[in-house]
Amino acid sequence: MKLGRTQIVVGCVVAALLLALGPTFLPSFYVRVGQLMLYSAGLGLAWAILGGFAGYASFGHSAFIGVGAFTAGLIEARFNSLPAPLLLLTGLAAGGLSCAILSALIAYPILRLRGTFFAIAMLGVSHVTAEVTNNIDFFQGSLGLNFPPIAPSTMDPASFFYELFLAGAALILLIAWWIRRSRFGSGLLSIREDEDTARMLGVPTERYKRLAFVVSAVLTGLMGVIYAHSLGYITTDSVYRDDTNLSLIVYSLLGGMGTLFGPAIGACLLVFITQVILGRLLDFHLFATGLLLVLLVLSAPGGVLGLMKRRRKAA
Amino acid sequence: MSILAVDHLSKNFRGLAAISDVTFEIEAGSITSIIGPNGAGKSTMFNLITGYLAPTSGSVSFQGRRITGMPTNRIAELGVARAFQIARPFRELSVHENVRIGALFGKAGPRDVEATTVRALQLANISDLSRQAASALTVGQLRHLEVARAIATRADLLLADEPCAGLNPTETAAMINVLRQVRSSGVTVVLVEHDMPSVMEVSDRILVLDAGRLIADGAPATVANDPKVIAAYLGTPDAA
């Protein structure tokens, strides 16, 4: 069955509305799981603009979560008399801008590396930014930063951040969808498939890679700003996390590398598995997660979406 | 009028001269073959023209404009396209999507993308394969895909690197036919080719490279009887 375009759009709007209503009927534990799912989905989608479309798998995107979060925190502390919505917008703008500047600065040298070399260099970037945040007093990485409460008093903070994460993830999905259908997106796919041939056909590979990198970094940074607000207090360790670096790759692997919805599906699946199914097995949940990942990737190399495609073909 | 001018072009790899002081011009609307023994510098010549390699000295001009030193994608935008010998399709994409990327970029730019794609598929005679994944194609079909994707860029000059290598006689005839069609559509074709019967049949003119030097240049019949060419391929009688 092939869905028409109207059906897909209507389906997405209905799904978004249902998701938005989630906190009104879900128990509070599941509101928090939902938060984590939407946060992860947003990050996974942002990562995939570079990693999935252009094939430059970054192993250090937590750098942008951290840089976004800390910039927002430091800036907001100076404007703390602003009303809450404006304060959040200021933080988002500052966090997004700092990620744009950082990514634009390192784009040229780092995107000359391909494959594993790029991935490892990004891991280095995330560690260096984390060390800088931690060791230079100005950034208060080891001391920690407080974020003023921004949830309206009429609303439960958990529900409020759930909705914020939903808005962020939806925005990133829209941007990814638009990129996927554009000339820019086709160019990114051709870079993933064969960069030299792409250039031979006239694809401005250098410019496109840099643009994809900056877009991916900024969107990751925005999610980082929201995340920091939802925590209320952050230190270096709460935003620059190696398990996040790893998870972003896993989301795409699980859901379907290079697909539009794959990273979001993979993120929800992994959060569901780790938080709901294995949530009670704290001692052994990392082991179980690892085992499950190996099994899933071995049995479905194309991820969940790849598996569904195979089923459809067989039927 | 010449569409491509190669002027005193040389390329050294460390000490080795892969191309030394080669000068020639290509007439617009012609099919020209570059032949020569293995290691003569044919592929290097293509790499220099498309900007994949930078020459040690000399220059290349396309439609009167010096393209030496330009990035590869800029040269493609001006109207130079290349089909690889070892096909380099975008494997995960369909045949249609492969060709569409040519139409989205290159000289075509993002205008009439769908029509340009369909026309290129027809010209290369692979319209019936358009829904297939590129990874499912045979070697012969992949060569056609290379040509389709290259001409979808609306290039004025197609550089085809051994389009007939490893093809059986039927496939070779089909490829020669496609190259003729491409020329009829107004594209100048330059081939690197080993398959001599195809070369003699399709070319208006043949350039012979040997050890990086241009040793013969002329109509197929003239070149085939040139003692220097025979010597380059077979060796001289007194050398034995």
Note down, in words, how this protein is organized.
The complex is a heterodimer of chains A (315) and B (240). Chain A is mainly α and 315 residues long. Helix content of chain A is 77%, strand content 1%. Chain A has a two-stranded antiparallel ribbon. In chain A, α7 packs across α9. Chain B is of the alpha/beta class and 240 residues long. Chain B has one domain: P-loop containing nucleotide triphosphate hydrolases (Rossmann fold). Chain B has nine helices and ten strands. In chain B, α3 packs across α4 (113-123) and α4 (113-123) packs across α5. Chain B is globular and about 55 Å long. In chain B, 49% of the residues are buried. The model of chain B has no long low-confidence stretch (mean pLDDT 89). At the A-B interface, α7 and α8 of A face α2 and α3 of B.
Could you give a short account of the major beta sheet of chain A? 2 strands, antiparallel
> What name goes with the CATH superfamily of chain B?
P-loop containing nucleotide triphosphate hydrolases
**Tally of individual domains of chain A:** 1
Overall radius of gyration of chain A: 19 Å
The largest chain-to-chain contact, stated as pair and per-chain residue counts, equals: A-B, 20 and 28 residues
Q: What is the CATH topology classification name of chain A?
A: ABC transporter involved in vitamin B12 uptake, BtuC
Order of helices and strands of chain B: EEEHEEHEHHHEHEHEEHH
Query: How many beta-strand elements of chain B?
Result: 10
Shape of chain B: globular
Question: What is the count of helical runs of chain B?
Answer: 9
User: Helical proportion of chain B?
Assistant: 25-40%
Radius of gyration of chain B: 18 Å
Mean pLDDT of chain A: 89
Average pLDDT confidence of chain B is: 89
